[in-house]
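Much of what follows relies on a compact textual record of a protein's fold. With that in mind, consider the following protein and its fold in token form.
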Amino acid sequence: MRIGIPIEPDPRQPLVAATPDTVGKLIKLGYDVDVQSGAGARAAYPDELYLAAGARIVGEDVWGADVVTTLDAPPREFRGRMREGAMLVARMAPGRNADLVQELADAGLTALAMDAVPRLSRAQSMDVLSSMANIAGYRAVVEAANSFGRLFTGQVTAAGKVPPATVYVIGAGVGGLAAIGTANSMGAIVKATDLRPEAGEQVESMGAEFVPIPVASEKSDDGYAKEMTEDQATAAARLYSDQSAAADIVITTANIPGRKSPLLLTADDVARMKPGSVIVDMAAANGGNCELTVPGEVIVTDGGVTIIGHTDLAGRLPGQASQLYGQNIVNLFKLITPGKDGSPVLALDDDIIRGITVTLNDTSSESTGEATPVEGSSFATVGDTRILWPPPPVQVSATPAAAAQEKLAAAAGTEEPEKVAFMGGKRAGIGLAVAIALGAAVILASPVSVSANYMVLTLAIILGFYVISAVTPRLHTPLMSETNAISGIVLVGAILVVSSTNIIISSLAFLAIVLSSINVFGGFAITDRMLGMFVKEEA
């Protein structure tokens, strides 16, 4: 099948749905890729790079491809150029665009909404909202620093002392955490608040102070903050006002999926802030968290407070944002192309695929499984196209609430730590003593010519023990520690006797070298793979 990458219809959109790097990855999955000439120009990806990656440069006929990927759902004019049965992959906000969903069905298109990826652990690599929020959080701090008239970091100079800036972040989602990390790295004093109490640990791990709302909150079961109760809203409003008045920079990130952004800062709250303060409203695209925010503009109030209402924070880093979005697309196609043969398969029994499938044309889309309707609703069918939105709810696991964590921490602090006996306790100690005694007897009874080998063995044991014991326990299991130490001892001894004139001894030594090496180097390989799980895949 052929994937088409067009120029974004919105002239304000500088991003492109695929970069030369991600095009190459799509080709490896068996797809042919068409890129409209100039599609990546604004993101600094010229046509020559796409050609080198294996793509074909085309014109307006890119819309005739089997699969079309864009940043946002194209206008009706451009969707009309797509053939019936084709697949559209883009951000669609289907929860807020019922008319769009119906139009996609009327056009006979299979539509996958990249902004509807459920918040499951295995879906993180496809989560476009998180990818863009990560970039937006970083860019929000950069924009704030550009408008802030002072340094972020504190300094002591010959001319006097410079205090650090104070940054207050409202909302500790992906964007909020990115902003926290960036501001902290620039030397600012960072505080943050989130409606989800379980976010406190994440905030503190980023080097910031978590300021909780002084009203009990419900634990999130879907990864998003729940809508506040009246008591929570009152307490939160008071907290936001007080913290904002004391901060130099305020960054708001609160969004409720499918709804207008909640109001967090009123005009009176802004009036209380110090002249020269900066507000970056990351929710400006959906109405804004600040009452005075003007989406798409930067304004300065009469009190000297700068309010930044950019709606394209991620788009201000088009090269990086395009790469991450393109990698999200690649990860999706890895999931729906199990055969790596360029033929997508939509397995509707998969929570991820089911969650992002808005419409499905059964005549051209190879699909497996049945769509489960939401209770109390039924799916419409337009010709050969089914409307599968909304999907059934998906429950995701969440970390324990902060109160529960504090309770567990307090209990852990009062409990006496378990004492672990060296070498496994009394029985192990007796066994060790017997082994030492037998070893000494063997050494005394052996010829003088082999005494040097025993010395080497002893040194190998001591060296292995101290090397392994110096490794942080969380980096390896006790079992791996012991087996690696034993393998090291065996390897040293085998190397010493492999040159023996006795063919049996030499053969056994060679075998010991092979097996010990497999264990040692295999341990390194496994450790590398385990550590790789904690490293984000580079785009």
